[in-house]
Amino acid sequence: MNRLQESAFPPRKRQKVSEPVLTDEERLLFNLIRSRENIGIWTGDMKRETNLPTTVVNKSLKTLISKNMIKEVTTIQNKGRKHYMAKEFMPSEEITGGHFYSDGKLDIDYINSLKDVCLKCIFMQKVSTCEGCLEWIKRSGVFNTEVTTKQMEEILQTLVLDDEITQMISTGFGEFASISVGKTCYISKSKGGVRGEKKTADLTSFPCFSCQRMTFCSPDGTISPATCVYYQKWLDF
User: What is the pLDDT of residues 52-102, one digit of tens each?
Assistant: First the structure.
């Protein structure tokens, strides 16, 4: 195409994307909601801060939702209250309850499934860490969604409090040989990795828990599990 032909077809002008047309009240409410970012705001606070009548607030909220500018979110603190947030933000854990909540409700089935899998992992490996459990779960393909480190830490701490597992510090010796010295690890108290079925041996008697020199203990050190009389007696038991 030559220049003469090009001049016959002038370049198209880019059309500007027009912003939604809002009333003063709608714009006031939207700016207030958007200013709260991922926390959002309750309708009662909207009325108090804007001094708008209830009918105007309700009508404006419906308009903003229809224009896809805001969304209603569920809060675990006050499920009966209507809470709104700008569409661009994702609700914070402060109002949703975090990764173990779904639509404002605690996902008990998911939590119990994670507990069962963690116990099985620790039992199969004899001793494991948070990272070890995460890797084991990843390879097993049990869950469709990704399990985070924070989730795993919370599950492991719950199992410790439930007296299902024992939290220990690796000595780097014996069963702990594959885990770095000083690393937090876990041992199962259940038979076959099944919750509720306890072992006859009490692992809480592990001698290192009460040893005042544990921080100085290492496989190659002057103080080590290999020369510890108490540790050997515990293994023989």
Answer: 999 999 999 999 999 889 888 877 666 667 888 888 888 776 666 666 666
* 83 and 127 assigned to the same domain: no
Cβ atoms of 226 and 173 within 8 Å: the answer is yes
Task: Indicate whether 111 and 78 sit together in one domain.
Answer: no
29, 157, 186 from 163: Cα distances, Å? 50, 10, 12
Map residue 112 onto helix, strand or coil.
helix
The answer to whether 110 and 117 have CB atoms below 8 angstroms apart is no
d(CA 188, CA 165): 4
Contacts of residue 4, Cβ cutoff 8 Å, sequence gap at least 6 = none
Cα distances (Å, whole numbers) of residue 69 to 26, 62, 125: 11, 10, 51
177-190 exposure pattern, b = at least 16 Cβ within 10 A, e = fewer: eebebebebbbbbb
Report the CATH number that the domain containing residue 182 is assigned in CATH.
1.10.10
The distance in angstroms from the start CA to the end CA of the chain is 92
| Domain span holding position 95 | 24-99
- Name the pTM for this structure: 0.48
Number of domains, the chain:
2
Contacts of 140 (CB under 8 A, 6+ apart): 117
For residues 219 and 225, is the Cβ–Cβ distance under 8 A?
Answer: yes
